[in-house]
Write a structure and sequence with these properties.
Blueprint lengths: L1 H20 L8 H4 L3 E3 L5 E4 L51 E4 L2 E6 L9 E2 L1 H7 L4
Parallel strand pairs: 4-5
Antiparallel strand pairs: 1-2, 1-3, 3-4
Length: about 130
């Protein structure tokens, strides 16, 4: 009986945990992200959003935009847009000028890990896994 109660409690805690983060990127938003451009605050092209097989996708590890070594990659922790301290970086949760996500209709939002209370900021990790682009 005690084991069954523990399993139920763990299931409830996991459901509550995932519901806190499920609203950050919704699967129906993937159409808005598909093919959208990632543009820095100074107008520099940083790649596209889309599946990992797409040649300019930030999720393609073999493209310049998805690599950990290219200067224009957000995943290069030494680049202006990939470090944790730059005002224009995706991975600085306090950045005031993170890259924009732009599709054919205009600005969708900003590619940024935070702050979570500021709407229209989307984590690249949330987009990648919600849209199944890995």
């Amino acid at each position: 009986m005690m084991l069954k109660t523990k399993k139920i409690l763990i299931s409830m805690l996991l459901a509550a945990f995932f519901s806190l983060y499920a609203d950050e990127v919704n699967s129906w938003e993937c159409n808005d992200f598909q093919g959208a451009k990632v543009i820095s605050s100074d107008g520099e092209y940083l790649g596209d959003l889309g599946p990992s097989w797409s040649s300019d996708s930030i999720f393609n590890d073999y493209s310049q935009y998805g690599s950990t070594w290219h200067q224009n990659s957000i995943f290069n922790e030494y680049s202006e847009h990939g470090n944790s301290y730059s005002d224009t970086s995706v991975f600085n949760e306090n950045a005031s000028n993170p890259p924009k996500i732009i599709n054919d209709e205009g600005i969708v939002g900003y590619l940024s890990v935070g702050p979570s209370w500021q709407n229209k900021r989307y984590s690249p990790h949330d987009i990648k896994y919600t849209c199944d682009w890995d």
